[in-house]
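Morning run. Coffee first, then this:
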Amino acid sequence: MVTGRLQSLHSFLEEINDRLKAGQVAGAKVWQSGFGALDKALAGGFRSGELVLLGGPQSVGKTTFGLQVMRNLIAANHSAVYFSFEHDNHTLLERLIAMEAAEIAGPTAVPLHRVRQAFEARHSSEQTLERRLEGTLGGVEAVQALEGYAQRLHLHRSHGSDTDVDAMRRVIETIRDETGEEPFVVVDYLQKIHVPQSAGMSEDERVTLVVEALKDLALELALPVVAIVAADKSGLATGKRMRVHDLRGSSALAYEPDIVLIINDKYEVVARHHLIYDVANADRFRGWVVMTIEKNRNGVDKVDLEFRKRFAQGRFDTGGGFVAEQLIDERIFVE
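And here it is:
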């Protein structure tokens, strides 16, 4: 029996068997992030119906990570949509070209600042990006690669004055109808999502409504939603390890999402004895971030991973691994 939202277990089992007989996936669909260590820790990647929050201090690389995951997915024949409240489309395209060039030519590929110059009229009279990037390492090939899967990538210039979760739903449904598949969703960032009739509400109340609505959206449309979250003042202090309780907004940010990922600069969160006894470690640690799986409703959590910054190309190395050093932890480690 199926009545509205109510379904008997018997009818659901029949539905599952019908899908299996048709050669379809009966369980949750998995989207791999392309970051090997993270996908392994998450038992394959992000799943349909999951709300994922990505937090961290300013300039740690949250947008870079979200955009790079999206790039990895569209390169693997998935569809994706990026709701950007912070950056215009040409800024995102510049980053994507630099990322793609690094995938092609490695860490010596054309740097992001050189890609940006190609968008400025004063630097060249050539009339295409390909011609303007001739002579750079990987630049031309990056533009060609992006053109190859550009139809699977959707950039939405979002506004805090009118882009609410219902507007996002309509965009996602349009993409799904046009492409025939559910797009992977990235929101940059959660606190800027519009809340209708929110006059007089506190930020905590607005954030609670938004995070609950995003979770409902992920479940209803059976896709993952990765939302970047700003830090509260408590999470911006130098030498402090940012945690989930340092995210800006209500306690709903801790209990509504399925996964919470927090990025910290490794230098800021590694236990000080690693620096005192080996000064050379300081420069090495500055080149890495620590990504902690603070919460994982469907698997292991409290896992610390590390990824190397390649910010000249606006990206991270995707391999990464587990952190070997001891980290600052207010609960177990006090200097």
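The two ends are 61 Å apart (CA to CA). Good start to the day.
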